[in-house]
Structures are given as structure tokens and as C-alpha cells.
Amino acid sequence: MKQVVRMIAAAAAVATMGLHAGAHAADEYPGSKPVSAVVPFAAGGPTDKVSRDLVQIMSKHLGTTIVIENLGGAGGTIGAKKVSQASPNGHTVLIHHIGMSTAPALYRNLGFDPLKDFEFVGEIADVPMVLVGNKSLPPNNFKDLLPYIKANASKLSLANAGIGSASHLCGLLFMSAIQTELTTVPYKGTAPALTDILGGQVNLMCDQTTNIAGQLKAGSLKPYAAMQSRRVEAFKDIPTAAEQGLPGMEVKIWHAMYAPKGTPKAVIDKLSAALQKSVTDPTFRAKMAELGAEAVPAQRATPDSLKTFLASEINKWTPVIKKAGVYAD
Ligand code: ASP
């Protein structure tokens, strides 16, 4: 009996030591070691732009350098899976968008559970989408584009950043709304897709304003419609799809930060506090606004708010995707 009591006491002591070591590590976090922020899309694209603007400011608030690691492919699911399996020590985080909520319905073998395999840091920014086309496409506005698409569907292509990306979701809703299938061309991000739109290798894309703000201002793309119910503040001259006869197009792309499951709460709290300071930082807010995006208020840059929102987005998009009958695999 004594032996058992001693063993229990020893096990309890080891567990306490472990707890102390964990608490100690969290106390010292982040230390001087950098944090790697995985962006699951190509460099130079919309998620990359939001992320780079964020980490520039957040590094200062966190007290260590946050380095972006681009890991594109499969609509963001490759990078997300990698982070779900990373060491939960606060030195690897994921910056992802709405794709976190659409992937479970699109991928039967996703390899991670967005709600169970991550800790939640908070939301970052909302980004609107605009349907754009190559300059040489004949239609000059959305009203003319719709019959043109119907008449030329077999010849027209629609770029996206892979199944589960924002451009894929928006394209899917658009094709379903106009009841016309186009050939879709997947890329590792809309940065490389945009190069091909500009070069005329693909014709159309539904993209986030964070990726195309420069081209919209320079007039090097044809903007057909804002894919939301109101005009985009920074691009007021682009009419919405609804204004031009196609109601119901509402795709708002939200971005958020996650850490691997098991990252200590004290570490998550530090990350989230730094995120809250960053999203309310006037420099970050101004940078987002310039790109047509909107940094979230501090109360959305919190773990609880993100977890609840992600669950609601999964519930919102799963039936839409199931109804569309689209699968990635
Ligand atoms: N977020 C993707 C990117 O950064 C684009 C997309 O999801 O459509 O390229």
C-alpha cells in the first residue's frame, strides 16, 4: 500500500514539474526565437499581403520576429494540415481565410479537423471580392458579360487558387447563380493566377481586392462586379452584381490566426493580445483600407470569438457546398 502511495506521490511530483516547466516556458514566451507564420498560398497573393502587413506590426507587439512561410497548394489545406501537426509551442502559427470553413465539406480526406486540431488566436481582416477579366475580353460591363459567357462557355476559363480557396468558392457561387459551367484552372494562389489573367492565358477570376487593388487602380483588368451586397468602399465605381441584375452574390473573405492544438493557453493569450493590438493599430487599419479590406475590431481578434465564428461558417457553407455537389477528391 505504502509503495502505491509513494508511486502516486512520485507521479504527481513529475506531473507538477511538467506543469511548472510548461508554465515557465509560457512565461518566457516568445523569447528571442522567431515565430513562423504559415500562409497556405503563394507569395504575393491576397492572404500573403494581409499576413505580411500584419506580421510587420504584430512582431513589434509580440516582442519577436514573425516570419512568413508560404506553403501553397490544394486551396490552403496543405499548409493548414502542416500547422495542425507542428509542435504546439507558439513558434508555428497559421494564417488562413474562409477556406478553413469550406474545406471540411470539400475534402473527404482532409487530414485535419479545423475545430478540433487547432487553438484559436483570433480574426484579422475581412476582404471583399470582385469578378475581373482580362482586358481583351469584349464585354465592358457585367450586363454584357452574362450573355457573352452563356454564348462562349466552352471557350472561357475561370482561374482559382485551388479547391477550398476563396476564388474557388466565389466562382462556384457565380457559376451556380448563372447556371453555366466554365473551365476552372487551379493555381497555388491568386498571385500566379493573376499573372495569367493579365497575360490572357485565362479569362476570368473572382479575386480579393487585396490582390488586385493595384491593377484595378491602373485599369489593367476589367472589373465586372463587386461580389457583395454593397459597393467596396475603396472601389466605389465598381457596381455590385446585384445592381447589375444578379442578386445574392455575397462572399466576404475573413482571415484568422490559429496555432496547433495543445499550444499553452498562456501562449495563446500572448499571441491574441498582440493580435488585438495589431488589428487596432492605425497603420495596419490604413493599409487594409487602402487594399479595399477592413481590419476586424479587437473583440473579433480573440480565441472565443474566432472559434464561435468558425463553427458558424462551417454550418453556413457545408450545406451550400453539399448542394453544389463539389468535392476536391
Ligand atoms: N487566398 C488565396 C491566395 O492568397 C486566394 C484565394 O483564396 O482565392 O492566393
What does this structure look like?
The chain is globular. The chain starts with a helix and ends in a 5-residue tail after the last helix. The protein is built from eleven helices and eleven strands. Residues 1-5 and 7-21 have low confidence and may be disordered. Helices cover 46% and strands 18% of the residues.
List the helices and strands and how they pair.
Blueprint (H helix, E strand, L loop, with lengths): L1 H27 L6 E5 L6 H17 L3 E5 L6 H8 L7 E5 L2 H8 L11 E10 L1 E5 L8 H11 L4 E4 L5 H13 L4 E4 L3 H10 L4 E5 H10 L3 E5 L26 E8 L4 H15 L2 H9 L3 E2 L7 H22 L5
Parallel strand pairs: 1-2, 1-3, 6-7, 6-8
Antiparallel strand pairs: 3-10, 4-10, 4-11, 5-8, 5-9
Helix pairs in contact: 2-8, 2-9, 2-10, 4-11
Bound molecules: aspartic acid.
User: How many separate helices?
Assistant: 11
Helix content: 40-55%
Low-pLDDT residue intervals, each spanning 5 or more residues = 1-5, 7-21
- First and last CA, distance: 57 Å
InterPro entries: BUG, Bug_dom1
Family: Belongs to the UPF0065 (bug) family.
Pfam families: TctC
Keywords: Signal
Give a summary of the structure in a few sentences.
It is built from 11 helices and 11 strands. It is of the alpha/beta class. Aspartic acid binds next to helix 2, helix 6 and helix 7.
